[in-house]
Amino acid sequence: MNVLCRLALVVSLAAISGHATADTAELIPSLKQGGYVLIFRHTATDDSQKDVYPFRFDDMSAQRQLSEKGRDMARQIGTALKDFAIPIGDIYTSRLNRAIETGKLISGREVKPVDALTDSSNASASGMANPTGANAKAGQAVRQLVDAPPKAGTNTFLVTHKTNIADAFGKEAGDVQEGEAFVYKAGSSGPATFTGRIKFADWSVRAGK
Length: 209
Prior knowledge:
The protein contains 8 helices and 6 strands, in the order ααβαβαβααβαββα.
């Protein structure tokens, strides 16, 4: 039984890592009906800046920030969401400013920073570069947010970091790109179902821009 369970887990993680990108042609328009949870990695950052640990959430000089490219990426995603008339409900983010700013620029409104989405690598350069998905407690906290059904007719947005996504969905999910979203469909009971990945470029392509 243990062997079968491990095999099922490997198959599940492979599906997340290699989901057919062609499905985004149908996935993005389907978000108009609501009922989905999108978990984003924040958009592009300034690599010349480094996080300081313990985190100083009120000190912008002690955090890596979005680059101008990252801010433009978030605005473009926000524009695509409006073009597709995709309803946004609750927006939860990491407590680090790059995730908060991403959430605000995507949605055009205030967000709710939470500990569960805050960088689980604790500013470790090795953790950010090579996420192992080994932090079970952090992963469980993220999955609880993903499994919570959105408000009727809306989609929940989560903005976090590569390490948190790997913790929640396995190290195979550690290839998540800046600005990419994993999409989950809320179920009537039980955990949400993975439905696909939307890369940053997919938004503008599907919007015909």
